[in-house]
Amino acid sequence: MFFYTRYPSSNTLKTYFPDVKVFNRCVTSQLIKWFSNFREFFYIQMERFARQAVRDGVIAPREGALRLGRNSELFRILNMHYNKSNDYQVPERFLEVAELALREFFIAIQSGRDTDPCWKKSIYKIICKLDSPIPDSFRLPGCPVDTHRSV
Q1: The pLDDT value given to residue 143
Q2: Relative to the CA of 59, which of 17, 18, 118, 146 has its CA 20 to 30 Å away?
Q3: How many alpha carbons lie under 13 Å from residue 150 in its C-beta half-sphere?
């Protein structure tokens, strides 16, 4: 689900977790915390790769070093974290959002904005607006069929 939405509301979580019988504050808080942890990992990786690109001397954010293809190291790390068993096809939109996040981190670091304690907030505001519709198959109990890889 993280491939589609990085900032789900509690209502979205209730809609897409039909297996959960009772949504009390504790359950909702736990699900929100999981997404918070997912986001934290995502942003840590974006910052790490952006800093490496700056150290490597990348000058423009559109250079190949900041492209996020399915064969890139950054994609491999994200896919291993969010899709350990590699059951799901990562949507193209996730690659676009991740590449944009990487470029935004790169630009902020390269321009020195990372000296401000709140420098990441502007990036978060951009990324939170880029959530995609979650496929209806995620509403079904168990494994979503139409996003599953054919083996």
Answers
A1: 56
A2: 118
A3: 1
Alpha-carbon distance of 81 to 149, in angstroms, equals: 17
Tell me the CA distances in angstroms from 22 to 17, 18, 43, one per residue in order.
10, 10, 31
Q: End-to-end CA distance of the chain: give it in Å, rounded.
A: 21
In the prediction, which pLDDT does 137 show? 80
The CA distance from 11 to 6, in Å, is 14
88 pairs with which residues across the strands?
Answer: 148
- Do 63 and 48 touch, CB atoms closer than 8 A? no
Please write the tens of the pLDDT for every residue from 39-77.
999 999 999 999 999 999 998 877 677 889 999 999 999
- Residues whose CB falls within 8 Å of the CB of residue 6, separated by 6 or more in sequence, listed in order: 35, 38, 39, 42, 97, 127, 128, 130, 131
